[in-house]
Amino acid sequence: MTDSELISGLAAGDPEAGRFLVKSHQLQVINVCLGLLHNHEDAEDIAQDVFVEALKNAHRFRGDSKISTWLYRIAVNRSLNHIRNNRKKRFLYEIGAVFGLADDVDNNKSGEPYTEDNKLESNELRHLLKSAIDSLPENQRVAFTLNKFEELPYAEIAEVMQVSLPAVESLIHRAKINLQKKLKNYKNL
Amino acid sequence: MKCRDAQKLILDYTASADVRQYNPDLDRHLQECIACRRFSEIYSTAYQVVAAERVTEENPEFYNNVISRLRTGKANRLEYGWLKINTFQFGTSLTGLAAAVFLGIWLGSRVFAPFFNGSVVREDAASGLQEAYAQEIMQQEASLDRLETYFFDNEKNEDK
């Protein structure tokens, strides 16, 4: 099914088109969310929201960009909103914890799933890279993640982020400089 | 090649899906520079570990979950550890706390206000006392008048 057939099918409310959309883009969308959220459950949860929003608003999609780009855009926005909301909720929770209104604060602040992986170095390095990426400014983080983990070309990242191509180049350039600095601090490289 | 440039290339090459492109300058630099070699090892390992966490298998229930969520709203929303905070409980408790503080301030102002005004005498008692005090002053003034009259009369008698 081509993009245009898919768009017209979705606009007409064809359930097969909906099924095809979800099946064909499920992994890409989950992985975009995972790249920003670093948590499988959150990523799948937000990915479901992404498809719900896409199916609800399919009739509004003008076809100016690829369907995948449109889905990436929703996924990035939803993931960033989730991160922002979690920060607010975490702040409220910590206030609640001070007054004894909430359970003990979970030590797993990054929201990463606990693993039984005994490879300490791998875990340490994984944490190092994730925290270095997470500490980047939001737009640099999105651009870097889409480029390096989703392997999206700069032009598509520009469409997803709704910025110009030079802006994407600049964001990724600055992200790399920042990451270099952060990773160099690790064990005094 | 400078370390700064080498490390930027490492960030690009490691993330590339293709096998690392051959760059003789970078290879030469990596052979000579221990710090950049270590940077390359650390970044490649970290990148591979993170990339390995990517989801590669479809969840067969995913589509059904999307459709049920589409029909019923956010019924499947997950509840996570620290997000289990009960907004109602939190809001009620804060309101209770605020009410207790205001009640305390109000009661405190009623009970301790006289002490802050520098007097422990209640208003009705104060008016009675003032009256008694005024009478006492009047009596004192009357006795002074009598004394003055007595001395004045005495002076007159002595003059005579």
Folded structure, characterized:
- The complex is a heterodimer of chains A (189) and B (160).
- By secondary structure, chain A is mostly helical.
- Chain A is built from 8 helices and no strands.
- In chain A, helix 2 packs across helix 4.
- Chain B is mostly helical.
- Helix content of chain B is 74%, strand content 0%.
- Chain B has 6 helices and no strands.
- Chain B has helices spanning 3-15, 24-32, 34-52, 62-72, 87-116, 123-159.
- Classes of the chains: A mainly alpha (189), B mainly alpha (160).
By DSSP, the count of extended strands of chain A is 0
* Helical stretch tally of chain A: 8
Shape of chain A: globular
Biggest β-sheet description of chain A: none
Q: Mind telling me the C-alpha Rg of chain B?
A: 47 Å
| Poorly predicted sequence stretches spanning 5 or more consecutive residues of chain A | 104-118
Structural class of chain B: mainly alpha
Summed up, what is this model?
The complex is a heterodimer of chains A (189) and B (160). Chain A is mainly α.
